[in-house]
Design brief:
mainly alpha; 6 helices
Length: 103
């Protein structure tokens, strides 16, 4: 799974310590925004029960956290693999390829 997380960066973080610091800062910002979206999704879902705005906001936050955090990525993908009917629809969002076997 770590190889998938670093493929998008093309080894950028391994080139220099400054690049590694930039990657850490970018991941921290994305995780913060994702957690903020997940926290805001609950009150938004309560305030707008007819138009489901909170659910997409929460899912967007979940995808952002999963994309930026290696630990959250592993935990969320392992949980989603338990439900194949969901996993087949979202696996490309989590960096899985079509021919790649499930772990």
């Amino acid at each position: 799974m770590d190889a998938v997380m670093n493929d998008a960066l093309n080894g950028f973080a391994r080139k220099s310590p400054i690049a590694a610091a930039i990657v850490v800062i970018i991941r921290a910002v994305i995780i913060s925004i994702g957690l903020l979206f997940m926290a805001l999704s609950v009150p938004v879902a309560i305030l707008t029960p007819i138009i489901p705005v909170g659910i997409p906001l929460g899912l967007l936050g979940l995808f952002m956290v999963a994309a930026a955090s290696k630990t959250a990525h592993r935990i969320i993908t392992n949980r989603l693999r338990r439900f194949p009917w969901i996993w087949k629809h979202v696996r490309k969002s989590f960096g899985e390829k079509d021919g790649e076997p499930a772990e």
